[in-house]
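Work Package 3 (structural annotation) set out to generate three-dimensional models for the target panel prioritized at the project kickoff. During this period the team completed the workflow that converts sequence records into discrete structure tokens, so that structures can be stored uniformly alongside our sequence database. As a representative example, we reproduce one entry of 426 residues exactly as it appears in the project archive.
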Amino acid sequence: MSTTAVPEVAVTTVDEGFWTRARKTGAVLLALGLLATGLFGALATGEQARFTLSETEGGAALEINGTVGAILFGIIAAAAGAALLAGLPKRWFTLVLGVGLVAFVLSFLCWQVSAAPEGRNFMPLVNIVRGTFVLALPLIFGSLAGVLCERSGVVNVAIEGQLLMGAFSGALFGSITGSVWVGLVAAAIGGAVISLLLAVFAIRYLVDQVVMGIVLNLLAVGVTGFLYERLMQTDAQKYNSAPRFSNWEIPLLSDIPLIGPALFRGNIFLYLGLLLVLVIHIGLFRTRWGLRTRSVGEHPTAADTLGVKVLRLRYRNVIMAGLVAGVGGASYTLALYSFTKNMIGGKGFIALAALIFGRWSPTGALLAALFFGFADQLATYLGAIGSSIPSQFLAMLPYLATILAVAGLVGRVRAPAADGKPYIKG
């Protein structure tokens, strides 16, 4: 009987010196706070910046003088940055950083809202919250698909293609049958087809998973674009006029100020997205399936030794991820728009960023998706009030937020140890 020695892993620590990550972040936040205090304060007007708690200009509102608000919140952001720069204890890092960033955004909004033309110098918070969730929906579904794959050890760069195929399938079959439910099922299957290809080539044939994901994205763009031109453009009434899911209002909860109208007067995709976050979180961290999934993503050899069917579990989870992403694609064509070529527009890659920003956790991915959704909604709002910021820059805002989050805020994160590594059964 032979034994195999397990090599010891050397753990090294890097002395960051004075300029720790927290202090670097504090320096940047301090600079942003000073910028907000000086620039936003100077550009803001003395008009009241109104943040209404409704969908219109009327009703209850939070009001503050534009100049005062821009300067006050800029000072708060600068103070938060100074606190981090001074070496605040690590346990306070996230809270102080969050306060500083929110203060910076509020300073910016005080400038923009107060400087808006008469009749548009207000921000309807209900619309902002609702729009944030609507625009975050495909990101929520896409990032959950990423969680299911990457917790199992398979890199899912094909989220873009899964969302796109889901949107196309939902529009096509929903239009042909006149049924939103058939469209929803078809969308899930469309996303699963892309995932099945990813699983076969990545797990069975050991193709590089990142390269395969990019190829599948291009395949989805090509196939849906070709069929769009051949079918939908020639007869939109028959092939691209899918019915829409109506909004469902939950009694009592929908009457809660601000949150109620935004969250409890939504369509099935909103409720399903939030439910999936809860279910997948509980599944990953409270069930046997979750334990096996995480073990396969961290150490598949050890999991195999304990009797876990590694390849079978990876196949199952990758296909399940495609089903989830396909439903996310349907949130476009069965709730909001008609299908157009390449309509996802990079949201799959933002969902991948949300996955990383959320540290491969369903709840973290949800919060990250909402952050990016807010950036998207903010760009739409600023365009509607006639902001002096060029429209081209506003269009870049969600992508700039993605870069800032992943490169600047996420810090050191560790993906599952076996993520992207093929498993060859010995």
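Strands lie at 48-52, 61-65, 122-124, 248-249, 265-266.
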